[in-house]
Amino acid sequence: MRRSALALLAPLLALALAAAGCGADESGSSAAAEESNALFGDGQAPLGGDGGSGLGSGFVLDDQGRIATNAHVVSSGLGGGLEPAEEVYVEFADGNRVAARIVGTDPFADVALLEIDPAGLSLTALELGSSEQLSVGQPVAAIGSPFGERQSLSVGVISAVDRDIQSLTRFQIGDAIQTDAAINQGNSGGPLLDARGRVLGINAQIRSTSGGGVGVGFAIPVDTVQRSLQQLREDGTVSYGFLGVSSQDLYPQLADHLGVDAEAGALVVGVADGSPAEEAGLEVGDETTEFQGQRDIPEDGDVIVAVDGEELDGDTGLADLIEGREPGAEVELTVVRGDERRDVDVTLDARELRSGPG
C-alpha cells in the first residue's frame, strides 16, 4: 500500500505545480519527481536520556548513504545546550528502516548530515538547485511527514525571501525562504522543491499561534545548506566568523534623526565582552533616543556601513558579510560615527554555541 501511494507522487507533483501556475517544462517536473520516489525518509530520534523521541523528515544526497535534515530533528536542547540524539533511524517508503549515524550538525543554520549503510538499498539523490535567484510567487512543493503522515506533498509559492527567523535551535537565520506551502510538525528536514524537482531549501518551521499551519512556513535556503553540508562532510562541524556585535538596520529617516552621515548600515546596539569588535574599539552610544515608536535607540554610537568595501544595504546585511568568513579572517570595517568615517581592521573569532551578539 505504501508503494502504491508513493507512486502517485510523481503525477501529483507535476499536476499540482501546473495548477499553481508553474511555467516550467512538465516533463522535467515529472521526471524529477519520479527520481524523488522513496527518497523522503523519517528520522525517528530517541532524544536525550529520558526515552523521548522526535519525528522529522529528510532526503538523500548521494548513493553513498548521506542524508540531509534539520539539526533540531536529530537533537535535543536549545542554543548552547544542544545535544545530539542517542539513536537515529531512517525509514524509507519501500519499508526499509535502518540506523543512521549523525556525521555532524550545524545548529546555527539548523542543518544536519546523517549517514547510513547503503548496502541493499536503492538510493537516488535529489538534485540540489540554487537559492540565489528565487522569486516571490515562484511555485514550490514541500514533501515530508506532517504529524507522522508519511510521504505527504503540499504545494504553494514562495511568499518572501531573506526573512529573519529564529531557528528551533534558538539561533538567528537571516536568509530564510517564506512559503505558503503547508509545513507542519513532522515536515522539518524535508525538501522544498522547485517545479523541476530540485531542492531549493530544507523545510524548517512554521509561524503559528495555534501550533497548526496557517500558510507561513520557512525553509533554510539550499545555498546555506550546501555550505553547511560541505563542512560537515569534511570536518563534522561548521565554523562561522564572529565579530561580536548586535545591531539594527539603519535607514535614511533614522540616520537623519541620529545625525549619521549614511543612509544604510548596521547600527551597533551591543558589543560582546572580549570580542573582536570590542578589541577594535567599536562602541554603543551612551545616550538613547526614541524614534517612530522604537525606544532605546543608541545615539552617538558606531554604524558599520561596509565590510571590505562592500556596502551594507537593504539586501545585504552585516551577518551576510561576516558569518560566511572563516575564523581568523581579517576584515576591514568602514565605520561611521556622526559625520566621521574611519576604517577599522578586525580579526574574526570563531562563533561559539552561546547567546548574545554575533
Q: How would you describe the overall organization of this protein?
A:
The chain has 358 residues and is an alpha+beta fold. It has two domains: 234 residues, Thrombin, subunit H (Beta Barrel); 110 residues, PDZ domain (Pdz3 Domain), CATH 2.30.42.10. Helices cover 16% and strands 38% of the residues. The strands form six sheets. Strands 2-1-7-8-9-4-3 form a seven-stranded antiparallel sheet, with helices on one face. A six-stranded antiparallel barrel has the order 10-11-12-15-14-13.
Between the first and last Cα atoms, what is the distance in angstroms?
A: 49 Å
Largest sheet at a glance? 7 strands, antiparallel
CATH topology value of the largest domain: Thrombin, subunit H
Count of beta strands: 25
Low-confidence stretches: 1-51
Separate helix tally: 7
In short:
With 358 residues, this protein is of the alpha+beta class. The chain has helices at 2-7, 9-19, 26-36, 222-235, 252-258, 276-279, 318-322, and strands at residues 42-47, 52-57, 59-60, 66-69, 75-76, 83-84, 88-91, 97-106, 111-115, 139-144, 152-166, 172-179, 191-193, 199-206, 217-221, 241-242, 245-250, 265-271, 287-291, 294-299, 303-307, 310-311, 330-337, 340-347, 349-350.
